[in-house]
């Protein structure tokens, strides 16, 4: 395995020294226009939700490497706020993706995240099979859905649009999203270099900025080469549409593979902008923006593309509120001063857990809730309730949910065991 690590290191150095192959330009049938100039469409970011597969059982050697099929997985440590572990994915000397697993949130349990590297998405020598299908198969995993995809439109013509927005010659029809927009300002020159539109917490979000200037800092030479090979030499602005799961759920017939089909990808980007990212002249005499003639930001009329229709999906039920209530009832039970209060709170918590299938969630939170109970008792400078002392709160809850009926020592009567609900 040491030899394998050396091979990977040599291939990494070769990859760093050699430019990527961008010999295949984007076909004209997939290029729109913006203010009369050629506009390129490109998938710029892709993150997929996948099943964990063999990831929980993956073992790394002393060099931090694990080999599965033709792929090397290089352990990277923590996976951020959502996942506990991370590894980079390599094949034939190319870093094609990162994979994150060991979910920190119960809603992501059993899942992992596959993030395709930015340079890989611009490499025309790599197929979808090489960067998604095959590594997922090597992990005995399956793709569930996209977490996020960014579709970028690059054009010198978009600089004209960007300047028109900055000069307030045009304004957005959807003022709610417009008012959430933020400017990108250079601290060195005070020059406005771009803006955002909408909210990042929503299913779609737009950034428009001077891409040529951004490339001077990011040093992503493969994107500059992508522009040149497609005949674009002037200053380029980028209109970047960030799409997430909430938006993808509204597309009828959508499949994650569609994002790797350029014609379908362009159609998805167009649909995301249509009727939402609309702009009109600012100096119109008509006070109603909806009635003004729209400004064509990107013209897709000559682009060969698929069509997507949107629908409003049924809302996804969340049990977040029920989980909060269950935890609160357990904490209240421990703080109760009567046996009846303890039992009633615990039985109510158990009843809610039963109706909402939260037993597995509670078992996964045993240590978390135990810590909360102990911490509160210490802060209040008291001992844990005798009903909880010396055992786990989960055992106390199970007992309360059974046939236990305590004696109320104040009245000498049996306490009520009827849930509060």
What's the arrangement of secondary structure elements?
Elements: H1 2-17, E1 32-34, E2 37-51, E3 65-68, E4 71-79, E5 83-91, E6 94-103, E7 111-116, H2 118-122, H3 128-138, E8 143-155, H4 157-166, E9 170-172, H5 175-179, E10 183-185, E11 192-197, E12 204-210, H6 211-218, H7 221-229, E13 237-244, H8 245-248, H9 262-273, E14 279-281, H10 320-335, H11 339-355, H12 359-364, H13 366-379, H14 393-401, E15 407-408, E16 413-414
Antiparallel strand pairs: 1-2, 2-7, 2-8, 3-4, 4-5, 5-6, 6-7, 8-13, 9-14, 10-11, 11-12, 12-13, 15-16
Helix pairs in contact: 10-11, 11-14
The low-confidence parts are 1-23
Give the biggest sheet.
12 strands, antiparallel
Helix-strand pattern, N to C?
A: HEEEEEEEHHEHEHEEEHHEHHEHHHHHEE
* CA-based shape: globular
Helix content: 25-40%
User: What is the strand content?
Assistant: 15-25%
Class inferred from helices and paired strands: alpha+beta
Describe what this molecule looks like in 3D.
The chain has 421 residues and is of the alpha+beta class. It is built from 14 helices and 16 strands. The strands form three sheets. Strands 1, 2, 3, 4, 5, 6, 7, 8, 10, 11, 12 and 13 form a twelve-stranded antiparallel β-sheet that branches. β6 (94-103) and β7 form a beta hairpin. α10 (320-335) runs antiparallel to α11 (339-355). The model is unreliable at 1-23 (pLDDT under 50).
Question: How would you sum up this structure in a few lines?
Answer:
The protein has 421 residues and is α+β, with helices and mostly antiparallel strands. 34% of the residues lie in helices and 24% in strands.
